[in-house]
Design a protein that fits this description.
- The chain is α+β, with helices and mostly antiparallel strands.
- It folds into two domains: 32 residues; 74 residues, no CATH class.
- Helix content is 39%, strand content 15%.
- It has two helices and three strands.
- It has a three-stranded antiparallel sheet with strand order 1-2-3, with helices on one face.
- Keywords: Signal.
Length: 111
Amino acid sequence: MKKKFIIPMIAVAAISGAVLFSAFKANSSSIAAQELWFQYDGSGSVTDPSNYSSGMETPPGCEGSEQVCAIRAQEGAPGQPDITSALQSQINAALQDPSTQQQDVRLRSVE
């Protein structure tokens, strides 16, 4: 009778342990996928990652609507944004119609 009770309890403990450890593993990978703000340096193509400064957690102060100021993206190469096709579309949309705000793109005036 005791064996009938112990075996299911061991199975429940094993499943609980597996779920617990996989939960911690999933959490650590989501930290690595953090999106940062990268400021455009004003030279070259706005879709070239090398034309952006290192990422920061908060967007820089951007005012105006004439050129890209900053974009929010995951880091690709060290210190450079990973500019996906979806982000390229947001950049193009922001430049074509500055009155529509894009979630991951900030514009500024040309000085």
